[in-house]
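Hi C.,

You asked whether I'd gotten around to modeling the 400-residue construct. I have! Everything is below, sequence then structure, no commentary in between.
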Amino acid sequence: MNTVPKTIWHVGGEDIRFRIPLLLALRDRGFNVGAVGSENGDAFANHQIPYYRYTLEREINALADIQTRTQLFNLFSKYKPDVVHGFDTKPAMITPIVAMKAKIPGRVRTINGMGYIFSSNSPLALTLRPIYRYLQRKASAAAGITVFQNLDDREYFRKHKMVKDGCDDLVLGSGIDIEQLIKNRPNPEQLAVIRQELGLERQLVVTMIARLVVSKGVMEYLDAAKIVCQQMQGVKFILIGPFSSEGRQAVPIEAVQQQAKFVSYLGIRNDISTLLSLSDLFVLPSYREGMSRVLLEAGAMELPLITTNTPGCKDVVQDGWNGLLVPPRNAKALATAILQLLKSKDQRILMGTRSGIHVRENFSLKKVADSYTNIYYRALGLPHLEQHQLNKFRNEVNYL
């Protein structure tokens, strides 16, 4: 392995902080790490990770996009990281193109899902697909490696010639720090207090955590909650996540308020381990994902899972084994699945145990960090590291 540490930058949006565990794991493997995002950098300062803020508009905005490209070009040209790695839709398209102009040798991007354009058959989505494919081809040509989080997305890119042959890879998610999740779990006494504060005593708790957009299946969750509560007593549904301003995709606050009798909306929360610990069942009726982090976190906390039979969701849940798969956009089917698991404690416990095993074996932070270590060296044209070399290198770093 090259003894000169390589500098890796992750570039994302307003939730780039979720890459911190992966960045820390990469730092443990000998890399210098940094991040570029559109949120404040407090979380990065706590871990002594260099952080640079830039302007990023989620929606299409020509003037804002020019500003974004200029800011990234100036950052890349000034600091010259060895590898820049773009996450999320816009950063994954913009980052490699700007990095190539700034003469950054290692250019990597991750496709975190294909979102509204491919989860909807609306006239607007259908119109945007050819434009999306064109932009993705340009980004793939500039990137050394395009990483996919599920097989369906990679197959689509390959079929439509949106990625160069031999220039892609598959990494299942961004890594779940299972030990940290468990460490943050409250003890039974603390959990009892929180249950009382939230009015969840002697209740079976069904939880959904997501941005409040239509494509996450929020409307189906609200409707399913009403159906379940009309058929079964002692059930409480909770919904956590930020409201969105994404036009037609945004779930109106009135829709949530209308179902307040059945669903408690808790807003944005930072105590995800706590909320998952007091839950009996986790639900995500999303229309499509890259690889759902929140499903993986819920699985790591040994919860039974109900999600849709769609890319990025079905990769986490094996139907009938660690959870149930339902069709997207189908509140009745979702309610039926929820009722099935709520009525069987034994089934919930068994599926929850299997979820924990499945996440630990296939989506751990260690596994993802090892994969990206090899991808970064491949992007730089350096030899790959075998598993025994990775283990040896980690031991050397820890010793030093």
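If it helps when you're writing up: The CA atoms of residues 17 and 172 lie 19 Å apart.

Thanks,
B.
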